[in-house]
Amino acid sequence: MARILIVGCGCRGRQLGGALRQRGHAIRGTSRSDAGRAAIEAEGFEGVIADPGRLGTLLPHLQGVSALCWLMGTADDPALHGERFVTLLDTLVDTHVRGVVHEAAAGAEAARYARETYRMPVALVTESPGDLGRWLPAALRAVDEVLA
């Protein structure tokens, strides 16, 4: 199947990763800390250190990735849904990444930009991250959409 990079692989990211692994996908998850990386690896995923606010730390981990899940829905930094996210989308054009899942309605403009400029599939997960029962199925549908 596909290798999926989950940026922001905390609790929700590990839940999503587990469901995707059950579907046969290989999961790589990011954390800003060694403790977070260890928690990712304890789930059986490849854990890597990367900071979504510093895209240079993320780029080496895009190798072989088919879909990127940008789970920054609860992040306070508006750049992670705007200028930083757009810069990432511009960079992804020259990688193997075929599509992006963005967790937040705030990413709608950036998603439209990627679709119109690069014809890149970007799916938005607008379900509340606080409602895992609705969020997880929506995130899975979004991954299916960008991999289709």
Protein structure class: alpha/beta
**Strand count, sense and closure of the main sheet?**
6 strands, parallel
**Major sheet: order of its strands?**
3-2-1-4-5-6
Count of helix runs: 6
Task: Describe, in short, the structure shown.
The protein is built from 6 helices and 6 strands, in the order E-H-E-H-E-H-E-H-E-H-E-H.
Written description of the protein model:
It is a single chain. The chain is an alpha/beta fold. Helices cover 42% and strands 19% of the residues. It has a six-stranded parallel β-sheet, with helices on both faces. The radius of gyration is 14 Å and the shape is globular.
Describe the SSE topology.
Blueprint: E1 3-7, H1 11-22, E2 26-31, H2 34-42, E3 46-49, H3 55-58, E4 67-70, H4 83-92, E5 99-103, H5 108-118, E6 122-125, H6 132-147
Parallel strand pairs: 1-2, 1-4, 2-3, 4-5, 5-6
